[in-house]
Amino acid sequence: MTAQPILRVKNLTTSIQIGSKNHPVVENVSFDLYAGKTLALVGESGCGKTMTALSVLRILPQPPVLHPQGRILYKEQNLLDFSEKQMRDIRGAKIAMIFQNPSSSLNPVYTIGYQLLEVAELHLNLFGEEAINRAITALTEVGIPNPQERLNDYPHQLSGGMKQRVMIAMALMCEPDILIADEPTTALDVTIQAQILKLISTLQEKRGMALLLITHDMGIVAEMADDVIVMYASQSIEKGNVHQIFDQMSHPYTIGLFQSRPTPETPKGKLKAIKGSVPPVTHYPKGCRFHPRCPFVMPKCHHGEVPDFVIEDTPHHTAKCWLYDGTEESAERLRSK
Q: Is it the case that residue 219 has pLDDT exceeding 90?
Protein backbone atom coordinates (compact mmCIF):
# COMPACT_ATOMS: atom_id res chain seq x y z
CA MET A 1 0.00 0.00 0.00
CA THR A 2 1.43 3.38 -1.10
CA ALA A 3 1.90 5.88 1.72
CA GLN A 4 -0.28 8.98 1.56
CA PRO A 5 1.48 12.36 1.42
CA ILE A 6 1.22 14.44 4.56
CA LEU A 7 1.19 17.63 2.44
CA ARG A 8 -0.06 17.87 -1.12
CA VAL A 9 0.46 21.13 -3.01
CA LYS A 10 -1.52 21.47 -6.24
CA ASN A 11 -1.07 24.27 -8.80
CA LEU A 12 0.07 26.76 -6.17
CA THR A 13 0.21 30.28 -7.61
CA THR A 14 1.15 33.35 -5.60
CA SER A 15 1.21 36.78 -7.21
CA ILE A 16 2.43 40.18 -6.13
CA GLN A 17 0.64 43.36 -7.13
CA ILE A 18 2.92 46.06 -8.53
CA GLY A 19 1.02 49.11 -9.70
CA SER A 20 -2.03 47.90 -11.59
CA LYS A 21 -0.49 44.56 -12.63
CA ASN A 22 -0.19 41.20 -10.90
CA HIS A 23 3.04 39.24 -11.32
CA PRO A 24 3.43 35.56 -10.29
CA VAL A 25 6.26 34.86 -7.84
CA VAL A 26 5.15 31.20 -7.62
CA GLU A 27 3.33 29.76 -10.62
CA ASN A 28 1.46 26.44 -10.85
CA VAL A 29 3.87 24.61 -8.53
CA SER A 30 2.79 21.12 -7.41
CA PHE A 31 4.47 18.59 -5.14
CA ASP A 32 3.82 15.97 -2.44
CA LEU A 33 5.60 15.69 0.91
CA TYR A 34 5.83 12.33 2.66
CA ALA A 35 6.57 11.54 6.31
CA GLY A 36 10.25 10.75 6.83
CA LYS A 37 11.20 11.93 3.31
CA THR A 38 13.06 15.01 2.06
CA LEU A 39 12.05 17.12 -0.92
CA ALA A 40 14.63 19.68 -2.07
CA LEU A 41 13.73 22.89 -3.92
CA VAL A 42 16.79 24.08 -5.84
CA GLY A 43 17.65 26.97 -8.13
CA GLU A 44 19.33 30.37 -8.22
CA SER A 45 18.33 33.19 -5.90
CA GLY A 46 15.11 34.80 -7.12
CA CYS A 47 13.64 31.61 -8.62
CA GLY A 48 10.74 31.36 -6.15
CA LYS A 49 11.98 28.70 -3.71
CA THR A 50 11.47 30.70 -0.51
CA MET A 51 8.27 32.29 -1.83
CA THR A 52 6.88 28.76 -2.28
CA ALA A 53 7.62 27.90 1.36
CA LEU A 54 6.23 31.20 2.66
CA SER A 55 3.10 30.63 0.58
CA VAL A 56 2.58 27.23 2.22
CA LEU A 57 2.79 28.87 5.65
CA ARG A 58 0.85 31.92 4.45
CA ILE A 59 3.23 34.41 6.03
CA LEU A 60 3.61 36.77 3.06
CA PRO A 61 2.36 40.35 3.55
CA GLN A 62 -1.06 40.99 2.00
CA PRO A 63 -0.93 43.42 0.24
CA PRO A 64 1.20 43.62 -1.90
CA VAL A 65 1.09 39.80 -2.11
CA LEU A 66 -2.30 38.45 -3.17
CA HIS A 67 -3.92 35.45 -1.51
CA PRO A 68 -2.37 32.26 -2.98
CA GLN A 69 -4.41 30.25 -5.47
CA GLY A 70 -4.52 26.48 -5.92
CA ARG A 71 -4.62 23.94 -3.09
CA ILE A 72 -2.37 23.20 -0.11
CA LEU A 73 -3.76 20.02 1.44
CA TYR A 74 -2.48 19.22 4.92
CA LYS A 75 -4.09 15.97 6.06
CA GLU A 76 -6.68 16.56 3.31
CA GLN A 77 -7.62 20.04 4.59
CA ASN A 78 -6.92 23.00 2.29
CA LEU A 79 -4.81 25.51 4.21
CA LEU A 80 -5.80 28.22 1.75
CA ASP A 81 -9.33 28.04 3.18
CA PHE A 82 -8.12 28.45 6.79
CA SER A 83 -8.66 31.64 8.75
CA GLU A 84 -5.63 33.47 10.13
CA LYS A 85 -6.43 32.13 13.60
CA GLN A 86 -6.48 28.55 12.27
CA MET A 87 -3.16 29.13 10.49
CA ARG A 88 -1.56 30.36 13.73
CA ASP A 89 -2.42 26.98 15.24
CA ILE A 90 -0.71 25.24 12.29
CA ARG A 91 2.45 27.38 12.10
CA GLY A 92 5.12 26.19 14.48
CA ALA A 93 2.98 23.40 15.88
CA LYS A 94 2.30 21.28 12.75
CA ILE A 95 4.45 22.96 10.10
CA ALA A 96 7.64 24.62 11.37
CA MET A 97 10.30 26.60 9.52
CA ILE A 98 13.99 27.29 10.03
CA PHE A 99 15.13 30.48 8.29
CA GLN A 100 18.52 31.00 6.69
CA ASN A 101 19.77 33.73 9.02
CA PRO A 102 19.33 32.83 12.71
CA SER A 103 20.64 36.24 13.77
CA SER A 104 17.65 37.98 12.21
CA SER A 105 15.17 35.28 13.28
CA LEU A 106 15.85 35.54 17.02
CA ASN A 107 14.67 38.66 18.84
CA PRO A 108 17.82 40.38 20.16
CA VAL A 109 16.09 41.99 23.16
CA TYR A 110 14.75 38.75 24.70
CA THR A 111 16.66 35.84 26.22
CA ILE A 112 16.77 32.44 24.53
CA GLY A 113 14.69 31.08 27.42
CA TYR A 114 11.97 33.71 27.00
CA GLN A 115 11.62 32.91 23.30
CA LEU A 116 11.49 29.15 23.87
CA LEU A 117 8.97 29.51 26.70
CA GLU A 118 6.78 31.61 24.42
CA VAL A 119 6.56 28.65 22.01
CA ALA A 120 5.77 26.23 24.87
CA GLU A 121 3.00 28.48 26.17
CA LEU A 122 1.49 29.32 22.79
CA HIS A 123 1.47 25.88 21.17
CA LEU A 124 1.87 23.34 23.97
CA ASN A 125 -0.10 25.09 26.70
CA LEU A 126 2.79 24.56 29.13
CA PHE A 127 3.66 27.11 31.82
CA GLY A 128 6.13 27.61 34.65
CA GLU A 129 8.35 24.66 35.55
CA GLU A 130 6.81 22.45 32.86
CA ALA A 131 7.63 24.97 30.13
CA ILE A 132 11.19 25.45 31.43
CA ASN A 133 11.78 21.68 31.45
CA ARG A 134 10.44 21.41 27.91
CA ALA A 135 12.79 24.20 26.77
CA ILE A 136 15.79 22.53 28.45
CA THR A 137 14.89 19.21 26.78
CA ALA A 138 14.68 20.93 23.40
CA LEU A 139 18.11 22.55 23.79
CA THR A 140 19.59 19.25 24.97
CA GLU A 141 18.19 17.46 21.90
CA VAL A 142 20.00 19.80 19.53
CA GLY A 143 23.31 19.39 21.33
CA ILE A 144 23.61 22.70 23.20
CA PRO A 145 25.85 22.26 26.28
CA ASN A 146 24.71 23.59 29.67
CA PRO A 147 21.17 24.18 28.39
CA GLN A 148 19.84 25.53 31.69
CA GLU A 149 22.45 28.30 31.66
CA ARG A 150 21.80 29.08 27.98
CA LEU A 151 18.19 29.96 28.81
CA ASN A 152 19.48 33.20 30.34
CA ASP A 153 21.65 34.12 27.34
CA TYR A 154 20.74 36.71 24.74
CA PRO A 155 21.19 35.86 21.03
CA HIS A 156 24.31 38.05 20.70
CA GLN A 157 26.07 35.86 23.27
CA LEU A 158 25.86 32.79 21.02
CA SER A 159 27.84 31.83 17.92
CA GLY A 160 26.12 31.47 14.55
CA GLY A 161 26.04 27.68 14.85
CA MET A 162 24.60 27.84 18.38
CA LYS A 163 21.92 30.29 17.24
CA GLN A 164 20.93 27.95 14.42
CA ARG A 165 20.68 25.08 16.94
CA VAL A 166 18.38 27.25 19.05
CA MET A 167 16.23 27.90 15.96
CA ILE A 168 16.04 24.15 15.31
CA ALA A 169 15.12 23.53 18.96
CA MET A 170 12.39 26.17 18.71
CA ALA A 171 11.07 24.71 15.45
CA LEU A 172 10.95 21.16 16.80
CA MET A 173 9.61 21.81 20.31
CA CYS A 174 6.08 20.98 19.21
CA GLU A 175 7.17 17.90 17.25
CA PRO A 176 5.78 19.17 13.91
CA ASP A 177 4.82 16.85 11.05
CA ILE A 178 6.66 19.03 8.52
CA LEU A 179 9.88 21.00 8.80
CA ILE A 180 10.78 23.62 6.20
CA ALA A 181 14.50 24.44 6.18
CA ASP A 182 15.35 27.52 4.11
CA GLU A 183 19.09 27.54 3.35
CA PRO A 184 19.75 26.43 6.96
CA THR A 185 23.55 26.59 6.67
CA THR A 186 24.11 29.69 4.50
CA ALA A 187 25.58 31.91 7.23
CA LEU A 188 27.77 29.18 8.78
CA ASP A 189 31.30 27.98 8.13
CA VAL A 190 31.83 24.60 6.48
CA THR A 191 32.49 22.59 9.65
CA ILE A 192 29.39 23.93 11.39
CA GLN A 193 27.33 23.41 8.21
CA ALA A 194 28.06 19.68 8.34
CA GLN A 195 27.09 19.52 12.02
CA ILE A 196 23.77 21.32 11.44
CA LEU A 197 22.86 19.13 8.45
CA LYS A 198 23.69 15.99 10.42
CA LEU A 199 21.56 17.27 13.31
CA ILE A 200 18.57 17.94 11.04
CA SER A 201 18.89 14.48 9.43
CA THR A 202 19.14 12.74 12.81
CA LEU A 203 16.10 14.54 14.23
CA GLN A 204 14.12 13.90 11.04
CA GLU A 205 14.88 10.18 11.22
CA LYS A 206 14.06 10.06 14.93
CA ARG A 207 10.71 11.82 14.54
CA GLY A 208 9.66 10.75 11.05
CA MET A 209 9.13 14.33 9.88
CA ALA A 210 8.69 15.38 6.29
CA LEU A 211 11.44 17.85 5.31
CA LEU A 212 11.14 20.56 2.67
CA LEU A 213 14.71 21.67 2.06
CA ILE A 214 15.42 24.90 0.19
CA THR A 215 18.97 25.20 -1.12
CA HIS A 216 21.17 26.03 -4.09
CA ASP A 217 23.92 23.67 -2.89
CA MET A 218 23.79 20.49 -4.98
CA GLY A 219 26.14 18.76 -2.54
CA ILE A 220 23.53 19.14 0.21
CA VAL A 221 20.85 17.89 -2.21
CA ALA A 222 22.90 14.77 -3.01
CA GLU A 223 23.42 14.06 0.68
CA MET A 224 19.93 14.68 2.04
CA ALA A 225 17.20 14.67 -0.62
CA ASP A 226 14.89 11.88 -1.75
CA ASP A 227 13.14 13.99 -4.39
CA VAL A 228 14.11 17.22 -6.14
CA ILE A 229 12.30 20.12 -7.80
CA VAL A 230 14.38 22.52 -9.87
CA MET A 231 12.81 25.99 -9.97
CA TYR A 232 13.38 28.82 -12.40
CA ALA A 233 11.53 32.15 -12.73
CA SER A 234 8.72 31.09 -10.35
CA GLN A 235 8.08 27.77 -12.11
CA SER A 236 8.96 24.13 -11.44
CA ILE A 237 10.99 23.27 -14.55
CA GLU A 238 12.25 19.77 -13.68
CA LYS A 239 11.29 17.26 -11.02
CA GLY A 240 12.23 13.70 -10.16
CA ASN A 241 13.88 11.60 -7.51
CA VAL A 242 17.45 12.52 -6.57
CA HIS A 243 18.98 9.77 -8.74
CA GLN A 244 17.00 10.84 -11.81
CA ILE A 245 18.01 14.46 -11.39
CA PHE A 246 21.71 13.68 -10.85
CA ASP A 247 22.05 10.87 -13.38
CA GLN A 248 19.61 12.04 -16.07
CA MET A 249 19.49 15.81 -15.69
CA SER A 250 17.30 16.89 -18.58
CA HIS A 251 16.34 20.57 -18.56
CA PRO A 252 19.11 22.83 -19.95
CA TYR A 253 18.89 24.93 -16.78
CA THR A 254 19.46 21.88 -14.57
CA ILE A 255 22.44 20.93 -16.75
CA GLY A 256 23.78 24.47 -16.36
CA LEU A 257 23.42 24.32 -12.58
CA PHE A 258 25.48 21.12 -12.43
CA GLN A 259 28.13 22.41 -14.85
CA SER A 260 28.57 25.58 -12.79
CA ARG A 261 29.63 23.61 -9.69
CA PRO A 262 33.33 23.62 -8.81
CA THR A 263 35.01 20.20 -8.79
CA PRO A 264 38.55 19.12 -7.86
CA GLU A 265 39.31 19.04 -11.61
CA THR A 266 38.03 22.58 -12.28
CA PRO A 267 40.95 24.83 -13.35
CA LYS A 268 41.39 27.88 -11.13
CA GLY A 269 39.14 30.72 -12.26
CA LYS A 270 37.46 28.55 -14.92
CA LEU A 271 33.96 27.94 -13.54
CA LYS A 272 31.39 27.46 -16.30
CA ALA A 273 28.64 29.94 -15.48
CA ILE A 274 25.14 30.10 -16.95
CA LYS A 275 25.10 33.20 -19.12
CA GLY A 276 22.82 36.06 -18.12
CA SER A 277 20.73 36.18 -14.95
CA VAL A 278 17.28 35.28 -13.64
CA PRO A 279 14.77 37.74 -15.16
CA PRO A 280 12.94 40.09 -12.78
CA VAL A 281 9.40 39.07 -11.90
CA THR A 282 8.05 42.07 -13.83
CA HIS A 283 9.79 41.09 -17.09
CA TYR A 284 9.51 37.34 -17.58
CA PRO A 285 10.12 36.45 -21.26
CA LYS A 286 7.30 34.98 -23.33
CA GLY A 287 7.36 31.26 -24.00
CA CYS A 288 10.01 29.32 -22.09
CA ARG A 289 11.38 31.62 -19.41
CA PHE A 290 14.87 30.17 -19.75
CA HIS A 291 15.14 30.63 -23.53
CA PRO A 292 17.22 33.89 -23.44
CA ARG A 293 19.95 31.95 -21.56
CA CYS A 294 19.53 28.53 -23.17
CA PRO A 295 22.21 27.04 -25.46
CA PHE A 296 19.60 24.75 -27.11
CA VAL A 297 16.96 27.39 -27.86
CA MET A 298 14.61 26.76 -30.83
CA PRO A 299 12.06 29.07 -32.49
CA LYS A 300 9.14 27.37 -30.70
CA CYS A 301 10.73 28.22 -27.31
CA HIS A 302 9.87 31.90 -27.83
CA HIS A 303 6.09 31.61 -27.51
CA GLY A 304 3.34 29.61 -25.86
CA GLU A 305 3.19 27.81 -22.54
CA VAL A 306 5.66 24.93 -22.20
CA PRO A 307 4.11 21.67 -20.90
CA ASP A 308 5.82 19.18 -18.60
CA PHE A 309 7.23 16.30 -20.65
CA VAL A 310 7.88 12.85 -19.21
CA ILE A 311 11.54 11.83 -19.43
CA GLU A 312 12.27 8.35 -20.81
CA ASP A 313 8.87 6.90 -19.90
CA THR A 314 9.45 7.59 -16.20
CA PRO A 315 6.25 9.35 -15.02
CA HIS A 316 7.86 10.79 -11.91
CA HIS A 317 10.66 12.50 -13.89
CA THR A 318 9.44 15.48 -15.91
CA ALA A 319 10.97 18.55 -17.55
CA LYS A 320 9.30 21.73 -18.79
CA CYS A 321 11.25 21.82 -22.05
CA TRP A 322 10.41 21.48 -25.77
CA LEU A 323 13.50 19.30 -26.27
CA TYR A 324 11.37 16.34 -25.18
CA ASP A 325 8.32 16.84 -27.45
CA GLY A 326 9.44 14.02 -29.78
CA THR A 327 9.86 16.14 -32.93
CA GLU A 328 12.84 15.78 -35.28
CA GLU A 329 13.94 19.38 -34.57
CA SER A 330 14.09 18.63 -30.84
CA ALA A 331 15.78 15.26 -31.37
CA GLU A 332 18.51 17.01 -33.40
CA ARG A 333 19.06 19.51 -30.59
CA LEU A 334 19.17 16.70 -28.01
CA ARG A 335 21.93 14.98 -29.99
CA SER A 336 24.02 18.14 -29.63
CA LYS A 337 23.70 18.18 -25.81
A: no
